Amino acid sequence: TSIMRDMGEFRQNMVFGDAGIRVEVKEGRGRCIVANKQLEVGDVIIEERPVAWGPKQLSPPCCLACCAPLEYTQITWCSTCSLPLCRQDCSLINKHTPECELMAHAKDMLILNSERDVQQVYYFVTVLRCLWLRAKSPTQWEAAKKLVSNLAHRKGSKVFNFNQTYVVDTLEHFGIVEFSETEIQEVCGIFDSNAFESSESSRVACRGLYLMASLMNSSCLPNTRHYFKPDGRIAVVATRPIYPGAEILACYTQPRWGTGPRHKHLQNTKYFSCSCPRCMDPEECGTWCSALKCPNSKCPGAVVAKKSVVVDPKTDWACVKCGAVIIHRKVLTYQNCGSQMVHTRDTGVESLLSLLEKLSAWFYPAHYTIVEIKMAAVKEWGDGGPVSYESLALKDLELKITFCEELEKIIGLIEGDMSRTKGFILLSFLRTLDYMKEKELQIPQDQIKKIPTMKKELAEIFKFDAGAPENFLSFKVI
User: Fold this and answer.
1) Whole-number pLDDT of residue 202
2) Could you give the CA distance from residue 150 to residue 238 in angstroms, rounded to a whole number?
3) What residue ranges of the chain have pLDDT lower than 50?
4) How does pLDDT run across 150-181, given as a tens digit for each residue?
5) Cβ contact 288:364 at 8 Å
6) Which helix (H) or strand (E) holds 228?
7) Cα 131 from Cα 102, distance rounded (Å)
């Protein structure tokens, strides 16, 4: 019965999906969301309003009501509390109510003389919106407090100390003393552990707390994607068939990375060690995202860890075909050098291709550094990226299309079908074909045949997504 009561609390902001799912508590996994019925690719599983929502802590200046970005000189100061708005009668002014009510008494203490001063407001404002619920909406507050805060792990960390200075001490300075230090740090932890980040072209990046969606556990082979509607609602959509009784899974890290970097990121930010099937399998369930090339030049095999690096980080690696071994220390050197080269690379076609050639000498074709470089080419070549279409030779355009096709396959294995990443790849693919056709360049027939299907999939992926690329369905000639 206590689970059912929790369930009611977590359901209170749901707009859709009530009948399709249930909350269960599983040994070693805690609370999780389970399917009540068969779900197919593209089915909306959850649609939900946020319990609290607002700009990220490191946000550039923006209106606290609509979150539209603002230059310092464009700011209108709220007549009640002196916080930044786009105008006094912004159409979303009610979103600004929580901090306006709590800060009104300190109106004359706010000294925001520069962009730098204004930025400090965003350090605390979204947290303040959640704290405001304690008095104004106790049922929302009680449910939000049941989300994981990781407070014990965070104590004394950089992020904890940052929040102590810029949230706890700042609120005290402004005379907001009704919340204890622990309560404030707890809300900071709940946001960092559970919030979903959303971005769209008309506003700065925001983060929101969603009661039901927060209960999805992480897997590095997720079966959902999510997007945001213009009013801040989240929609969670199936990217693989999900059977009755199966868990609904998101991914709390970048699923394209290899197991090592994913594991490190999860431990540093979410304080847990992932034991999903992909993390436990040295071959990463056939995605080979961490695999190296065999040192034996005649062998086409992939070199993977002898045991999962989550279980034994210092394990040696061996070729799956010929058994050739690469010792742990050397693997680490390859990976660190590869990542370093990716992070410090120059833009431009020549430097990208020479880097790809270097990485391909060490890494298996599906390795995450190679995938990142191909993703970079897809993003940067044409489509308003740093490399213009006009400067690309026909062979470069053809190579970009090859990269799109390869990436689509890899992303399908990792993220399931109809993921947002696939949407961005399809869009780049179509825009490149559009440019080639406009310039009357040769396009293979099988690619021309795929255009209607790709357009249909693109429309399906982005149709209600507030963060969709602008004009994603407008092409010149295709």
Assistant:
1) 87
2) 28
3) 1
4) 999 999 999 999 999 999 999 999 999 999 99
5) yes
6) strand 224-228
7) 10
Helix, strand, coil share of the chain (percent; to 5)? 45, 15, 40
* CB-based contact 455:427 (threshold 8 Å): no
197 and 206 Cβ atoms separated by less than 8 Å: yes
| Nearby residues of 99 by Cβ (< 8 Å), 6 or more positions away | 64, 81, 83, 125, 128, 129, 132
In this predicted model, what pLDDT tens digit does every residue of 84-108 receive, in sequence order?
999 999 999 999 999 999 999 999 9
Residue 139, token pair as written in the block = 């049922």
Q: Can you spell out the DSSP letters for 128-169? A: HHHHHHHHH-HHHHHHHHTS---HHHHTTSHHHHHHIIIIII
3-state secondary structure of 122: helix
Compute the distance between CA of residue 289 and CA of residue 270 in angstroms, rounded to an integer. Answer: 22
d(CA 446, CA 34): 41
Determine the Cα–Cα distance for residues 231 and 168; give it in Å rounded to an integer. Answer: 29
The C-alpha atoms of residue 323 and residue 280 are separated, in whole angstroms, by 20
Q: Is 379 exposed, middle or buried (0-12, 13-18, 19+ CB in 10 A)?
A: middle
Residues 6+ apart with CB under 8 A from 474: none
The pLDDT of residue 3 is 54
For residues 463 and 196, what is the distance between their CA atoms, to the nearest angstrom?
20
Question: Model's pTM, two decimal places?
Answer: 0.94
Q: What angle do CA 243, 278, 364 make, to 5 degrees?
A: 130
Give the 3-state secondary structure of 29-42. CEEEEEECCCECCC
Give me the helix-helix angle, 349-362 and 328-343, nearest 10°. Answer: 170
